[in-house]
Amino acid sequence: MDRTTPVAHPWWRDAVIYQVYPRSWADSDGDGIGDLPGITSRLEHLAALGVDALWLSPFYRSPQHDAGYDVADFRDVDPLFGTLADADRLVERAHELGLRVIVDVVPNHTSEEHRWFQEALASPPGSAARARYLFRDGRGDGSEPPNNWPSMFGGPAWSRVTEADGSAGQWYLHLFDASQPDLDWNRPEVREELESVLRFWLDRGVDGFRIDVAHGLVKAPGLPDTDLTLDPLRDPTGLQPMWDQPGVHDIYRSWRRLVDEYAVEGEDADRVLCAEAWVEPAEALARYVRPDELHQSFNFSFLLTPWRADALRTSITESLAQAGAVGAPQTWVLSNHDVVRHASRLGRADATEVVVTTGIGADDPQPDAALGLRRARAATALMLALPGSAYLYQGEELGLPDATRLPDDVRQDPTWERSGHAERGRDGCRVPVPWEAELPSLGFGPGDDPWLPQPPEFAALAVDRQSGASDSTLELYRTLLRERRDRRLGVRALSWLDLADDVVAFDSAGEGGTVRVVANLGAAPIDLPAGFGVIVASGPLDDGRLPPDMTVWLRPAG
Ligand code: NOJ
Ligand code: MG
Question: Which residues have CB under 6 Å of ligand 1?
């Protein structure tokens, strides 16, 4: 279906892409905040892990009210993270190591400190500067927000400005924090600017973009009230006037034409686009990855699937069918910087309950760490055997849990304040990574005061403790990734096996022979199918049987 790539399976169809959250991966200068030189210095970890690419969350100039998703200058690096030269060096080093680099683009909104928004504030209602954003008069006497939309971080999605003469003025829309005004994508100037930003980074050598809030750029005409019985925070089903409006697809067709210009005839060098689109149902999400639109879209329905065999089978089947219907590879993801890490999510008493962005606090019921880790390893082993492309989130290869006992006074996610302390928010999954157990900040950086404190249990999970330890989560990930790559599991065909109700099992057929994958979600150990040998198991077998909450990859014996 792809028009530009001559190779049979362009790299992105089965790539494993590792998300680096720059604030929290590696800090080179000891200020407690991760940075680009820190990332560059640790890239060997990713080469040794065996991933194909890294995706960097935003490192652009930003006042950091939403950890960098509030961009003040799309074409510059925030001094917190380094310089443009540091970004170039990172891309260069990654390419030397055979790793591709995907960066975030945040097109739905800017920071309030962006030059455009500052101009809008200084300009009168009705001006061209205001028209780049969604400024509206208030309802009634002007003191009521223009509509009833809620912000994703709590409170109303509108804030009121003070006009130049000191009077209470118009309102502007912000689907997220008040410091993140939404752009008006009906304006050609907005479209041109963001395309020019894409070119700026492509010209510096990046291999693609992850598109923030890809389903939110176009709003329903007239900005009508939303039906608040369909909670837009938890139910982005396309019935909401702020999500998944048909007009977004024109934007992505244009972006696809743009990145295709960078493809090189005869080389596996496509520059790719991946949507962050919380859209349901799967058919609606698949529209984002039609042949002339984006290459990939995150499969959040898989992330949200409860730990139950029937639910997983259904989710996987539907995901593959919908992406397959438009010729796109499916993607798989279990953790990212917005959700409770899967090692904690799956360790809750009721892992069928979905806790995503709300976070877990010290006074909430605590997950069972051992159960969560066992299930997380099984879930990852299942995911990495599926056809398509997979996304990993930094630290999951160490089995890191969420920091569920963070003191509330260190929290930085705007959700905590905007929700009136009803939702803890996402800090728990953003705690700096442990590298060397004996060093200050566990090797995160030379300082001993990382921007979020690392919980005591992180020391035993440090990279140096796990490296070479055969039963460690890190070595499990390395093995899974090596076997996945060697056997090209990402470009194979899956056929389901019906072994038992509580078991998810399939054959992955392709060159190099069948791989049989069995995940036991039941309460008792099960026998392995006869005539197979173990390639890799997510934990120790029990006398040759597969214990509960474990996954095994098998190959025909002999
Ligand atoms: C999605 C990002 O992943 C999240 O971290 C951010 O807060 C919102 N978009 C707003 O940009
Ligand atoms: Mg730093």
Answer: 66, 69, 106, 176, 212-213, 276, 337-338
Q: 343 lies in a domain?
A: yes
Query: Ligand 2 centroid to 195 CA: how many Å?
Result: 30
pLDDT value at 92 more than 50: yes
What number of helices (H) and strands (E) belong to the chain? 15, 20
Task: Count structural domains, the chain.
Answer: 3
The CA 475 to ligand 1 mean position distance, Å, reads 31
For residue 534, the cross-strand partners are 554
**CB-CB neighbours of 159 under 10 Å:** 17
Strand-strand pairing, 60-61 and 53-56 = unpaired
| Residue 447 in domain | no
The set of residues, in sequence order, having a beta carbon less than 8 Å from that of 418 and lying 6+ positions away, is 151, 153, 154, 155, 177
Nearest CA to ligand 1 atom 5: 338
446 C-alpha vs ligand 1 centroid, how far in Å? 29
What pLDDT is attached to residue 337?
96
216 and 167 part of one domain: no
User: Is the pTM value of this prediction over 0.90?
Assistant: yes
Contact yes or no for 382/484 (Cβ under 8 A): no
- What's residue 282's pLDDT? 87
DSSP assigned state of 24: G
The residue among 452, 477, 502 that closes a domain is 477
**Residue 162: helix, strand or coil by DSSP?**
strand
Q: Just list the catalytic residues.
A: 212, 261
Record the tokens describing residue 16, joined without a space.
């494993």
Q: How many CA atoms lie within 13 A of 113 on its CB side?
A: 15
Ligand nearest to the CA of 64: 1
**Site of tokens 């005869």:** 266
Ligand nearest to the Cα of 29, by number: 2
What is the signed CA dihedral for 432, 437, 439, 445, rounded to 10 degrees? -20
3-state secondary structure of 377: helix
Contacts of 235 (CB under 8 A, 6+ apart): none
Q: How far apart are CA 461 and CA 473, in angstroms?
A: 9
Evaluate if residue 236 carries a pLDDT over 90.
Answer: no
Q: What is the 3-state secondary structure (H, E, C) of 459-480?
A: HHHCHHHHCCCCCCHHHHHHHH
The residue whose CA is least distant from atom 3 of ligand 1 is: 338
Q: Which residue is listed with tokens 């996304």?
A: 391
Q: Which two tokens stand for residue 449?
A: 């005061």
Domain limits for position 538: 493-556
Residues with CB under 5 A from ligand 2 (ion): 27, 29, 31, 33, 35
Work out the pLDDT band at 358, boundaries 50, 70, 90.
confident
Which ranges of 171-299 does DSSP label H, i.e. alpha helix? 188-203, 248-260, 282-286
pLDDT score for 3: 45
Burial class (CB in 10 A: 0-12, 13-18, 19+), 491: middle
Tell me, yes or no, whether 274 lies in a domain. yes
Q: Which ligand is nearest to the CA of 79?
A: 2
